[in-house]
Design goal:
alpha/beta, Rossmann fold, binds adenosine-5'-triphosphate, binds magnesium ion
Length: 261
Amino acid sequence: MSAIPLSIETRQLCRRFGDFEAVRGLNLQVPQGSFFGFLGPNGAGKSTTIKMLTGLLQPSSGEVYLLGHNIWQAPIEVKRQIGVVPEKLHLFERLTGGEYLEFVGAMYGLSEDLIQARSEELLELMELSQRNDRLIADYSHGMRKKLALAAALIHNPRLLFLDEPFEGVDAVSGRILRELLQDLIARQVTIFLTSHILDIVEKLCDHLAIIHQGQLITAGPLQEMLDRLTGETPAGTASLEEAFIQIVGGQKNTRQLSWMQ
Ligand SMILES: Nc1ncnc2c1ncn2[C@@H]1O[C@H](COP(=O)(O)OP(=O)(O)OP(=O)(O)O)[C@@H](O)[C@H]1O
Ligand SMILES: [Mg+2]
């Protein structure tokens, strides 16, 4: 039996939208301190799962435990300790980045001095401090992502949920972000991440789960998964991209549009 405590555990987690089952009987186990990649094709149920894990969407059935608490029974206790960058960002457009961080810090009950010090550092790190009178309404897509990440970090969470954090972020900021996430892992923060950029997932994550059509297909340490696949690959080498395509049943031959001959 593994002695490592779990930061996230779900039991038979389900979510239906009408007749459609978006998430079906999901049993996830995320070890404390892991960098956990949650992968799946478009529409697989990743964002729906993250919303249920973070208290944003009520499950149809099943249970969610974060840091030992049932999020739906002790939401405040849990939310104090987690940070979330959701798929769709809901920022307050008429605030500046600094004002937004001030608001979020106050929501978490941080002192004014602490908010001031942390937001200055976060804005600097995210390269958002140059024009600090600019309203969020005038931010670019990538700037919004970075501000959302800063807001998710201001209360120093122990568990971080990131739904596509690299989407739309430039190469320089991408590297800053990767280094920041690695720093957090070194400080025992658990990170639960979805991304379609498999190169980054392969470099950063140590654990992986793949879902397809709402069901868990495989989960475990990344290296074990790659090793298993390496054994099955004729060339003896396997990238995460190959593993992913094989696991979710993608086709290797290129499909063509009938009128493009
Ligand atoms: N509010 C909703 N009402 C109806 N169907 C929904 C709703 N939210 C999600 N779905 C459906 O649930 C399925 C899973 O959606 P979800 O957003 O979780 O996918 P995803 O894995 O995050 O995909 P992507 O990689 O494209 O972000 C999709 O078929 C989607 O259409
Ligand atoms: Mg999604």
